[in-house]
Design a protein that fits this description.
It is a single chain. This protein is of the alpha/beta class. The protein folds into three domains: about 120 residues, no CATH class; about 375 residues, Glycogen Phosphorylase B (Rossmann fold, 3-Layer(aba) Sandwich), CATH 3.40.50; about 240 residues, Rossmann fold (3-Layer(aba) Sandwich), CATH 3.40.50.2000. Helices cover about 50% and strands about 15% of the residues. It contains 35 helices and 24 strands. The strands form six sheets. It has a nine-stranded mixed β-sheet. Strand 8 and strand 9 form a beta hairpin. Helix 12 runs antiparallel to helix 13 and helix 14 packs across helix 15. The longest helix has 30 residues. The chain is globular and about 95 Å long. The protein binds pyridoxal-5'-phosphate (PLP). The site of pyridoxal-5'-phosphate has 13 residues, from helix 7, helix 26 and helix 27.
Length: about 850
């Protein structure tokens, strides 16, 4: 052997990795992970050993959870990288969903089911005598959202991956999500939530993906010879937005999309000069101030918090997302921004990211040098906006002076857009009052920027989230805009993902449906209608109700463990779980509960049906009436559960800390779903859909998506009562009080007297809630009580006929497929985004 060859051989044996390039050996490629249980078992042990540094013999349960998560995650990464390279090759349109909230919940079971790994993981862990069901409950519940709006974003993200859309979620990586609720002495106590305490194995920090975000400072005009003057924003404060990516696994793992959450960091982590001169606190102050932006989620739902930090959060994640979108587009499309609307759609989930409209204009005009008109055209074609509420207290506006101080250039741009919109309107012949209705600036009570109007004018499509809500939007908040731009408003009724809200949360029902009609409904939920014909089949119905009973037993066990309340799983489980809000009318349900309690005691001769009334939900910390409702629910539960005279007929349960995981336990166990909002006020609701899909009957008003559920499920299978939206509006306009109604109804009067006279807690404790009914009865609780009471009694009668009840329960599950978020997403893709599916 020549000495050179000898040297080369020695080198190849001993070469340090950095020398590897010199040697003619193909670079090793990672082997895609295999899905059999033996491979999984081996890899889980390897993760435990080499990633976590533990021995299987001494590992704690949390160590196992992390090891399983990492092993499953490897399989996601294989699909993720494949999806990403398909994205580059196809160049298909990207859909960017901007949402201040993603109420994700736990991810392990979601990933395991979507990847088809259930059996393999269970078998793999049995070799170590570890139970996957138990591990799954140890995962923290990622609560980066308040309620329906945030959960919708999470369902949509999963559906985009499942139907094959190149989807990108953009949001905020809150260090502390939605607060943890405890009930102490019957009252809500808010405790900090710390989902990142043990690290987060699902996210990948992308330090290289970071953008500068400015606040404050000045705008200067730059004049150069022969060029039009340019505006340059010089922010006084600059911070960094750093990306954290979480893979979003679609059904069967065919596509894995990305949820990109931004975290705020200081440009300089410490001011060394200050530190060295002894100011140790001051040296860190700036970093703390920067990081504070993404520390906490605002816990207000359907209500504007109105604090400066909130506006900072909104701009922070909007600007970071737009900079990222533009960077990506320029890189992939030869630096040409004119094609942006062909390649990207940006959906604004409510007005929280509405400042994006002004920021996009700034980036296009000031930073990338495009003309105003071209930029405005691009902006409108790129953006679309989803409205989520008509409640006046929730419509977002910001004081002009705050906006100007924090975002001076964006404020100038808003003025310029406003001038243009008003010009257009005047040309179309709108008069003074109508023009001020469409102005982006509310000149009424102190000058304020109207974020809904900004989102509207900057979008080519504006959608409501149920048919009724969309019609009301046209008549109320956006009435003038709708006259001016009649083609822009459209409806996209919400949906929920059937993977999480059926396959994952209700394995018993999933197996039963599979046994009856085969597994095809898992790929295409519309096939679940195949069980409709089995609703009259006694054998199937019995199995269906047996699954329900098993789910109720599971919930009863949790109620016993958490609250030491024993409930009978054969009683009707009558459930209202959702954010606590006056318009959702938990108070109406509680008044009916108290009335029922009184009637059971005074009329023992009537065949009352055993019920368990189950409540759960959080109140915004500053919302006094909502907190009173929680207090009342707990007071009512304490008194009724301790009264031996109603023991077998009525129990009341308030389960603390409602979140996605608790919802997954509760929905499959419900017999009756309470969707009783004051008509015209619930934009859609999605809790209503989850319940019905799992075979609960609905008692509800003609509100939000209930209206469409009635159409799909059929009037024999849903229990509708109460005033319509139009009747509510008329009563409110007349300013009718509830007094006459109360005086005419001994049952209602009796219940309200019990509540105010101290049967449930101190006398007078609930005067405020009760007095509102005698007053203008704003939420129509007195007005709807009688109809609600009668409908509940019809349900009692139905409950006695278990065959009839079972038939309706089956029909509910069979007929809810349309309310899948896959259907919603396909409609958005076709009508708003013009984006391909199945890519
Ligand atoms: C579905 C869901 C909601 C929304 O419920 P609504 O009844 O539509 O208000 C809120 N919170 C959680 C945790 C949910 O899963």
């Amino acid at each position: 052997m020549s000495s050179a060859a000898e040297k080369s051989r020695r080198n190849s044996e001993t070469a340090a990795p950095e020398d590897a390039g010199d040697v003619a050996v193909a670079a090793p490629k990672p082997t895609p992970r295999r899905n059999d249980s033996a491979s999984l078992a081996k890899e889980i042990a390897e993760k435990l050993t080499y990633a976590i540094g533990k021995d299987p013999a001494t590992a704690r349960r949390h160590d196992w959870l992390e090891a399983v998560t990492l092993a499953v995650r490897d399989r996601i990464v294989d699909h993720w990288l494949a999806s990403n390279s398909r994205n580059v090759q196809s160049g298909a349109k990207r859909v960017c969903y901007l949402s201040m909230e993603f109420l994700i919940g736990r991810l392990l079971r979601d990933a395991i089911i979507n990847l088809g790994l259930s059996e393999a993981v269970r078998d793999a862990l049995s070799a170590y005598d570890v139970d996957i069901d138990l591990l799954e409950t140890l995962e923290p519940d990622a609560a980066l959202g308040n309620g329906g709006l945030g959960r919708l974003a999470a369902c949509f993200a999963e559906s985009m991956a499942s139907v094959g859309i190149q989807g990108f979620g953009y949001g905020i990586r809150y260090v502390h999500g939605f607060f943890r609720q405890e009930i102490v002495g019957g009252e809500q106590v808010e405790l900090p939530e710390n989902w990142l305490a043990h690290g987060n194995p699902w996210e990948f920090e992308r330090r290289e993906r970071s953008f500068e975000i400015g606040f404050g400072g000045k705008v200067t005009t730059i004049e150069e010879a022969g060029k039009p003057p340019r505006q340059v924003w010089r922010p006084a404060e600059r911070i960094l937005a750093v990306a954290y990516d979480t893979p979003v696994v679609g059904w069967k793992g065919t596509r894995v999309n990305t949820l990109r959450l931004w975290s705020a960091q200081a440009l300089d982590p410490i001011l060394l000069d200050a530190f060295n001169s002894g100011d140790h606190i001051g040296a860190l102050l700036e970093a703390n101030r920067a990081q504070s932006i993404t520390q906490v989620l605002y816990p207000a739902d359907s209500h504007l918090a109105g604090q400066e930090l909130r506006l900072r959060q909104e701009f922070f994640f909007s600007s970071a997302s737009l900079q990222d979108i533009i960077r990506h587009h320029l890189k992939r499309n030869g630096g040409d921004l004119s094609t942006l609307p062909d390649k990207v759609s940006i959906q604004l989930n409510d007005t929280h990211p509405a400042v994006s409209v002004a920021e996009m204009m700034r980036l296009l005009v000031d930073v990338h040098g495009l003309g105003w008109d071209e930029s405005w055209d691009i902006t409108k074609r790129v953006f679309s906006y989803t409205n989520h509420t008509l409640l006046p207290e929730a419509l977002e506006t910001w004081p002009v002076n705050l906006f100007e101080r924090l975002l001076p250039r964006q404020m100038q741009i808003i003025y310029a857009i406003n001038a243009q919109i008003i010009r257009e309107a005047t040309q179309k012949g709108l008069d003074g009052a109508k023009v001020s209705a469409i102005s982006l600036i509310d000149e009424g009570s102190g000058r304020r920027v109207r974020m809904g109007s900004l989102a509207f004018v900057g979008s080519h499509a504006i959608n409501g989230v149920s048919a009724l809500h969309t019609e009301l939007m046209k008549k109320t908040v956006f009435n003038q805009f709708h006259e001016l731009y009649p083609e822009r408003i459209q409806n996209k009724t919400n949906g929920v993902t059937p993977r999480r809200w059926l396959l994952e949360c209700n394995p018993g029902l999933t197996d039963l449906v599979t046994e009856a009609i085969g597994p095809g409904f898992k790929d295409d939920i519309t096939k679940i209608s195949g069980i409709d014909k089995l609703a009259d089949d006694a054998g199937f119905r019995e199995k269906f109700m047996a699954v329900k009973l098993a789910n109720k037993q599971r919930l009863a066990k949790t109620i016993e463990e958490r609250l030491a309340i024993t409930v009978d799983p054969t009683a009707m489980f009558d459930v209202q779980v959702k954010r606590i809000h006056e318009y959702k009318r938990q108070f109406l349900n509680l008044v009916e509960t108290v009335a029922l309690y009184d009637q059971i005691r005074s009329h023992p001769e009537i065949a009352w049906q055993p019920r368990v009334k189950i409540f759960a939900g959080k109140a915004a910390p500053s919302y006094a009436n909502a907190k009173q409702i929680i207090h009342l629910a707990n007071d009512v539960a304490r008194v009724i559960n301790a009264d031996p005279s109603v023991q077998n007929l009525l129990k009341v349960v308030f389960l603390p800390n409602y979140n996605v995981s608790l919802a997954e336990l509760i929905m499959p166990a419900a017999d009756l779903s309470e969707q009783i909002s004051t008509a015209g006020l619930e934009a859609s609701g999605t809790g209503n859909m989850k319940f019905a899909l799992n075979g609960a009957l609905t008692i509800g008003t003609l509100d939000g998506a209930n209206v469409e559920m009635l159409e799909h499920i059929g009037e024999d299978n849903i229990f509708i009562f109460g005033l319509t939206a139009a009747e509510v509006a008329a009563r409110r306009a007349e300013g009718q009080s509830g007094r006459e109604i109360i005086d005419a109804s001994p049952i209602l009067k009796g219940a309200l007297d019990s509540i105010s006279h101290g049967v449930f807690g101190e006398p007078g404790r609930y005067n405020n809630l009760v007095d509102n009914l005698y007053g203008n009865d704003w939420w129509m609780i007195a007005a709807d009580f009688e109809a609600y009471w009668q409908t509940q009694r019809r349900l009692d009668a139905l409950w006695q006929d278990s065959d009839a009840w079972g038939t309706k329960a089956v029909r509910n599950t069979a007929r809810m497929a349309w309310f899948s978020s896959d259907r919603s997403i396909r409609e958005y893709a076709k009508d708003i985004w013009d984006a391909p599916t199945s890519v």
